[in-house]
Design brief:
By secondary structure, the chain is mostly helical. Helices cover about 70% and strands about 0% of the residues.
Length: about 425
């Protein structure tokens, strides 16, 4: 029997830090829809122009993701996550001092955008994936549940601060919370295991054989393709553009969800509650789809039912005129879109291997970030041109459908490393 007494698998500490980082990063992004109308109104700009800070932030994330991926492969996650948290928190705090769209775009779009790379999906999911094998989908699902909890808790707290002290105080509050993530990153991420580094028995804490022997303790380098090799495959570009298109749809809804609801005459409280419902249902969705991806022959199959739920949710949104239908949309959309957080990095690990996972996943994330930059701007522009969101939601549905077609063509292209299970005490 395996002796598990007095031991703890270090990978779960990595999961906890990833959870905290994603909690603040994506909680802040979704909180933007709560603060959007007040900030844009005081600055005196249109909704299309007011979407610019969010668009620039996601564009910066897109440009920085491959670099952050390479840094994670080389140096590990500790200082990248800690430094990203401090920089992102500083950018948010400085948003409380803005008096122009230019300043808003600089502090939120560029400063928070650069810092957000350090606490984003690339460093966190890469850090988690290299510590897990058989339960990688589950571990990523738990880590990305931070996104769901963040979209529940932070919008609610920001709305409380907003109602009492104004939107500027809300940005100060978000800045402090975000910077605080540097503490667990510095304290808990003591190991130097990187995506391309071999695993060793007993690394960092305890004995990895005990409890959850996910990584290969025989000292072999993880198999996988370099970024240069990956981008020469059709599967890379199918996954890249699939991620671009689905995030156009998701982020187009994300920033404009509350303004759309209030335009329909729905009370601001119910509109804000719908953001929380998206977050709550996404918590279950991330855990479910992460678990499901571990049990499908190909992890991409876990995204097929997720797409159906996102599409159905957006159809409900098209006809939403009352609070109850807004809640139906939020439940379907939140549970479905949550799948992309844990499943996409797991697909990258399976399709291209883990040797250069940070760089490859960073490049794939660039696609998602480009979609995230385009989605809110296109949605705001369509609103400015047509006076409504109908054609914006139609565009989102079309993008999601094409994304699914591209995803279906993704195939494994890296030769997996042999998995040698450790049996018995000592594993040899």
């Amino acid at each position: 029997m395996r002796n598990t007494r007095g031991s703890f698998y270090y990978g779960w500490l990595v999961v906890s830090v990833a959870f905290a980082a994603l909690f603040v990063n994506y909680g802040v992004r979704y909180t933007s829809t709560v603060l959007f109308k007040d900030a844009v109104g005081e600055l005196g700009v249109s909704r299309g122009a007011g979407s610019l800070p969010f668009t620039v932030m996601v564009a910066v994330y897109a440009l920085g993701a491959p670099l952050v991926g390479r840094l994670i492969d080389r140096y590990g996650p500790r200082w990248i996550i800690a430094g990203g948290a401090v920089l992102a928190g500083s950018g948010l705090w400085l948003c409380s001092r803005i008096n122009s769209l230019f300043a808003f775009t600089f502090f939120f779009g560029i400063v928070f955008g650069i810092g957000g790379n350090g606490i984003g999906l690339v460093p966190t999911n890469t850090a988690v994936a290299v510590w897990f094998r058989r339960r990688m989908g589950l571990a990523l699902g738990i880590a990305t549940m931070g996104i769901g909890f963040g979209t529940v808790v932070l919008p609610l707290l920001a709305e409380v601060v907003l109602s009492r002290y104004g939107w500027r105080a809300s940005f100060q509050f978000l800045g402090y919370v975000t910077a605080a993530v540097a503490v667990p990153a510095l304290v808990l991420l003591r190991g130097k295991r990187k995506a391309g580094a071999p695993a060793s028995r007993g690394a960092v804490t305890g004995n990895p054989q005990a409890g959850e022997p996910e990584v290969d303790s025989h000292g072999e380098d993880p198999a996988g393709m370099s970024l240069a090799a990956a981008i020469r495959t059709a599967s890379f570009w199918r996954l890249f553009f699939s991620f671009v298109l689905v995030v156009v749809a998701i982020y187009g809804v994300m920033l404009h969800q509350v303004p759309f609801a209030t335009d329909q005459g729905i009370d601001k409280w119910w509109a804000t509650l719908s953001v929380m419902v998206v977050g709550l249902t996404s918590i279950g969705g991330r855990l479910f789809f992460g678990w499901l991806s571990d049990r499908t022959g190909e992890r991409k199959r876990a995204l097929y039912p997720a797409f159906a739920m996102v599409g159905l949710g957006m159809l409900v949104l098209v006809f939403t005129r009352q609070a109850w239908s807004l809640m139906v949309f939020a439940s379907l959309f939140g549970f479905g879109y949550a799948a992309y957080g844990p499943v996409v990095p797991a697909i990258v690990a399976d399709v291209f291997g883990k040797a250069s996972m940070g760089a490859v996943f960073g490049a794939i994330t660039t696609g998602g970030a480009l979609g995230g930059a385009a989605g809110p701007y296109l949605t705001g522009l369509i609103f400015d041109l047509t006076g409504g969101y109908f054609w914006a939601w139609m565009l989102g549905l079309a993008c999601a459908a094409v994304s699914l077609v591209l995803l279906s063509g993704v195939r494994v292209v890296a030769t997996a490393a042999p998995v040698r299970e450790q049996r018995g005490e000592g594993g040899h």
